[in-house]
Design brief:
By secondary structure, the protein is an alpha/beta fold. The chain contains 8 helices and 8 strands; from the N terminus they run βαβαβαβαββαβαβαα. It has one domain: Alpha-Beta Barrel (TIM Barrel). Helix 5 packs parallel to helix 6. The radius of gyration is 16 Å and the shape is globular.
Amino acid sequence: MKLAPSLLAADFGNLRAEAKEVEAFAAYFHIDVMDGHFVSNLTIGPPVVNSLRRGLSRPFDIHLMIDHPLTYALRFDVCPDDFISFHLEAKDDPKKVIGVIRETGAKVGIALCPATPVERVFPYLTIVDLVLVMSVEPGFGGQIFMPESIERIRFLRREVGEMPVLIAVDGGITTENIRLVTQAGAELVVAGSSIFGKTDRLAAVRALNEAAK
């Protein structure tokens, strides 16, 4: 299990310092980019994400919750180990978006909202590196995990089989459900409030890792 602390739950006035606090335990930093259209929330864009790169050594998992990923994907400074994930429900053609993200040099991910049938991502499994299963409605942190997400992850795991596609889950992850999602087949787990909502962030990360076992 790889853990990706979600900076959506961190203090936006102190993002780099809060990321550094848990960096030793992070496989990636999950960064949500929202446009106020695809979801009813605004967060940060390429200038802030690119500035975060300074002083951090872990790769980024950039999650585009935006209508037009074609417009913005090329504006991120990325490394080969980074992911840029876009939503299958976005307005741009998925194959075009995949091609543009490949041009950046990053790995490609597709995210699925809870209401989207999992099988809609199947035609793209051979041309992406990651599928992100949303276990809450996208847009805001601190939501309650949707238990039906476990079967969605399990269904996706069976279809992925031996393909080199990483399965990720994002939303409402706690010590009570992290083992359920990893047993179902999630390999990259995004956690926000269960880390940055705690006073002792390192203890919170250790508790998640222990619960996943």
